[in-house]
Amino acid sequence: MSLKYAIMSLLAHGPLSGYELMKLFDGSVGYFWHATHPQIYKELARLESEGQVAHRAVEQRGRPTKKVYSLSEEGHHDLVAWLRLPARVRQFKDEMMVKTFCSGLVSDEDTCELLEQHRELHRARLQEYQELERFLRSGPITTNRLRRGPYLTLLRGIRYERDYMEWCEEAADIVRHRLDRPRGRSARPPSGRQARPRSTR
Amino acid sequence: MSLKYAIMSLLAHGPLSGYELMKLFDGSVGYFWHATHPQIYKELARLESEGQVAHRAVEQRGRPTKKVYSLSEEGHHDLVAWLRLPARVRQFKDEMMVKTFCSGLVSDEDTCELLEQHRELHRARLQEYQELERFLRSGPITTNRLRRGPYLTLLRGIRYERDYMEWCEEAADIVRHRLDRPRGRSARPPSGRQARPRSTR
DNA sequence: TGCTACATGTAAAATGTTACATGATTCG
DNA sequence: CGAATCATGTAACATTTTACATGTAGCA
Question: What's this model's pTM, rounded to 2 decimal places?
């Protein structure tokens, strides 16, 4: 029952078409929600039949006409009521962790490659989000209260990607060096490794 | 198609009943996978009909007889083949982020309360995982290769909870102080407020 | 000319959740 | 005595994914 509010949350910041919603779920808000287009179009139709959103057709030159949806007053009211309810912690499903959990069944080389590949995915996303942050920072964040929320979630996205990336590095180090002592005492292994020279791969 | 491998991953580390699997998805591996019991029992039945797992009935004194499942050779083989495939990045759904995204629609007090509540949830989980880590650290991690995977995922869980908790604090600070300048220049507000001195960390 | 982006949908299949159902034991 | 834990399931419902379906415009 939350796709409803995910869509309405985006519409609360401005009118959008189904296609634009899809792009957002696929991009800038992709790190906290995802939905495919059949889901979105169906949900929009349902929300409209419930009176929570309304659309107007917008004709474009050289492009198909699109349906631009906005929140109705009722929708806005409903969204705010939901916002006041406590959030449930997410229960997520991370394939990478399942594979890591079983990494003892494959070679250390395979495990390191897996970690390296994943690190790259998160590094690329981190960069995207950081660029977005720089852009958002160019304007005032709290003057327009509506802009603060998206900024806060972006900070979360940046943290998440950075933290995941760092974990990939830490895990690969443990696998490579067969580190069997507590970290923290000496965060880095004794050998002169630094800056992760991937030349050796 | 991944609940299959999530279950098989746990079975790869030792035989388990459906109920025990449920407890794991609910507890120690809960931060990377979740499944409800109807799902688990159905999937186990399906996996058994496919020959990937097998069970034997284990009678207990004073407790109902349980079905303890183990991976078959075929199941082991299938799991390893899947492990070699690259992992897809997870597409997750975080209610908390949806609410944060729209926090401009509610009062700063409500937003701070939301963040504070969430911080507490993650703090509690962090503590659990850290205790688990201390326990795992008491034995050798890499001597038994099978134990390393679970240790690595636990490290990820700890990082995740800590990072989420820190974000809750950072976000609450921004909301409270209406911070409208880049962080990093001066992380702390000029005023002498310091309810949660993080200086000691 | 073929690929990508824009734009919207339907249908079927797979997954996941919630409610219903049962029954023994242990702890407070 | 009531609630929680152990233990396994079914049925109904909701959600999500994948495949099918269509058509225009711009770019290489």
Answer: 0.87
